[in-house]
């Protein structure tokens, strides 16, 4: 596991939130550099087990040789299938440290950051086909406006979307700095970084269908965690807009914290049993 890959925030709050039993089965669905996984393994005894997930090939190099550890090289949306296959159900706790790792952000060739020039890629999983460049080409102006609003809360989303689509009509946008240049006429002068961060975040969330994966994870985890077990999330998004409504409608996920959602530091909340009742 690599300590220079990602410096986990809220490491101890998250791991303590799992209330680890030495012989329990735990899942870290966002392995990354393995900082949280390492801390979980330190609390497990010889009979304990940790299953980690990551869909990013770069993270796979950080896998531990520890016999209690298994790395699943997949999107965590397939949680239940993989755990069933591995014979690890039910589990005692699950940790999700959402978002991108420092490694992903700081590697220009991945295209996640406007700070570096690189291909407009942003895929966490290189096995998927749709890069941010492809997404921008495929979406029409209305869909792009909706995406910028929903995932980036971009104020002048219609104007930004129009600017991007007009530029693409002249030729493809294939690099991060090309996109920054295209956006220059609509970039607020005093809030350049904040604005670009919002646009890049919106594209990243869409490219990786991050909310789709999260929704599936939250509903599936309810069927995987034993009553009394824990689900701990760091950086869970606010349940607003269609995503929040879908979560509420699923009736299987509870949110706790400020303004009805789990925020940093994310409190652990009890697992929900198979009937949808909150476990004690
Ligand atoms: C914030 S980092 C986690 C860092 C980790 N906790 C550590 O200590 O190094 C998030 C990681 O989750 C992975 N990830 C994000 N969404 C995923 C998904 N749907 N399925 C599997 N892995 C995902 C990313 O590739 C990234 O490596």
Summarize the structure.
The chain has about 280 residues and is of the alpha/beta class. It contains 12 helices and 6 strands.
Give your account of this protein's structure.
- The chain is an alpha/beta fold.
- It has two domains: about 10-100 and about 210-270, Vaccinia Virus protein VP39 (Rossmann fold, 3-Layer(aba) Sandwich); about 125-205, DNA polymerase, domain 1.
- Helix content is about 40%, strand content about 10%.
- The protein has twelve helices and six strands.
- The protein has helices spanning about 10-15, 35-45, 55-60, 80-85, 100-105, 130-140, 140-150, 155-170, 175-185, 190-205, 210-225, 240-250; strands spanning about 25-30, 50-55, 70, 90-95, 225-235, 270.
- Strands 3-2-1-4-5-6 form a six-stranded mixed beta sheet, sandwiched between helices.
- Helix 3 links the parallel strand 2 (about 50-55) and strand 3 (about 70).
- The two termini are about 35 Å apart.
- The relative contact order is 0.13.
- S-adenosylmethionine binds near residues 35 and 55.
